[in-house]
Amino acid sequence: MGAGEELTRAALAGGLTGGMFTPERYHFHPVLDSTNREAMALAQAGAPEGTVVVADGQTRGRGRLGREWESPRGENLYVSMVLRPAMPVSHAARLTLVAGLATVEAVAAMGVEGARLKWPNDVLVAGRKLAGILTEMAADGMRIRHVTVGVGVNVNGRAAAFSPQVAARAVTMADILHRSCDRGVLLAALLAGLERWYGLYAQEGFAPVRRAWKEWALLEGQQARIDTPAGVQEVWLEDLDAEGFLLVRSQDGERMRVLAGDVVLF
What we know:
The protein has helices spanning 9-12, 35-44, 94-109, 164-167, 173-177, 183-204, 207-216; strands spanning 26-32, 52-58, 77-83, 115-118, 122-125, 128-140, 143-153, 223-228, 231-240, 246-250, 255-258, 262-265.
């Protein structure tokens, strides 16, 4: 099979059987600068909810907080989805948690054991990063116009081939399973999971997503360093609150609610 062939529209058509992600809304590119950038451009031009952008490789892949996401061609999964949720702007960050839940379930279904969620946007295995989510929003005042949810999963490459800084904290599915994985099968599972959880959220609210997310999460009793706009603190993680924010306890026992920040686990 040629590079990227398992990710083409023809290859994925049989797995795009839900109501939101359909073959007509699926866009595959051998190389893009960034799937999120392309998906945002399509959304701004009026692309419908359920539009999917996939690339076999990226030249300017992006992670959270402006970090580079190393994106070699022919190895890993780089996908962005356009959503148009009927929710307040203040709730948009919950979609990162919805996408994380779909991602961790998809990699587990492919045989990866021990995958866990780290708030707000990472999938880890044994403390190393397997996948990440980047969510970007466009809004008119308090009304969401669209949200682009980007997911990157380290699939068939080897972590040792990344730059030294990334290799020290990354892992791939091939590293874990000692075999290659079909990226098309993984993507179909991810999209099906996202459609399911996104639909459940629309019908029942955030509570069922929160319950499921916590079952996969590294939370209670986990020590971490949190880098927030207010500064860096060492804390113990406690819970995910009903709004999707992180509850932590400081070293002096103060309980705090973290709305945004970079979490580094010890």
